[in-house]
Amino acid sequence: MTILRAFILLFIFELLPSTSLNLAPSSLLETAIRSAYVAGNLMTSATASDKGVEVTKLNKKDLLTKIDPLCEEAIKKTILARFPDHLILGEESVEPGPSASSMALSSFLEKSRATKKPLWIIDPIDGTTNFVHDLRYSAPSVACCVNGEVVVGCVFDPYANETFWAVKNEGAFLNGERISVKPEACLEDSVIAMGAPPGKLSASKSIKGFEGLLPKVRTIRMLGSAALMLGWVACGRLNCYWEWDLSSWDVAAGGLIVEEAGGRMRGLEEDTLKFDVSERKIIADDGKCGNDVREVLKESGLF
Ligand SMILES: *[C@@H]1O[C@H](CO)[C@@H](O)[C@H](O)[C@H]1NC(C)=O
Fold it and tell me: Can you tell me which residues bind Mg(2+) (predicted)?
């Protein structure tokens, strides 16, 4: 009886998503969401000692807890159970630092191209400092790339129980409802988010940018999770988010969610037309204020 019921449930679960999307992206999406949930549940059930900082990576500001590798393993296991031959690039499997991160990405993209296998780019806990300090704004981020392009992305906020996802050309969603950016007519009315990055150079760029921007916008927020700030641009809570130095796993899922919500995800220095996961300096916007923000950053001497 129970086995029969399990079979029926499994059958329904397999059928449901494929009715609205074609099969391949929907099974990638289902796996992305499922794996983000597994990691998110580990985050919310973590005890205080689990959140103890195990290692500081590059410097005292770059933290790693006991839970990060557990979440990464859980995400990988979930993906590989469904797609045993797919490639996975995870933050915790790469040495700290921008150059190791860029090298790992290009070698995985190359491998993905050569083997024609999808590449998953995952961040088990985006916003680790928030996680450690109980600031309740951090999230697993799971993206899948085909031919070097992100086709599916999911960011799950386990505290607010908010699931952001997007499928290439199929739109962006929050808890199953379609979302879109909310363009603000002028920069003075825009709420801008930015990073407070640990690196010396990116910190000094951020301070300059903050100084230039603050008098010209409604306000600035530094919320501490790139993946979630991108989700928040996508659903219209923020007009723009920029950051000087990020890795592919911070932005892969969120970038697609912004684009599919009608926003723009671009390189900060050069006006790239299309979002590229190798881009480490990014600006995401509501389709409107990003150009003005870039002008102010340029005037402030960032580039
Ligand atoms: C979280 O949200 C989903 C809908 O996205 C809902 O089905 C689920 O019951 C919620 N869980 C909790 C614990 O509120």
Answer: 91, 123, 125-126, 250
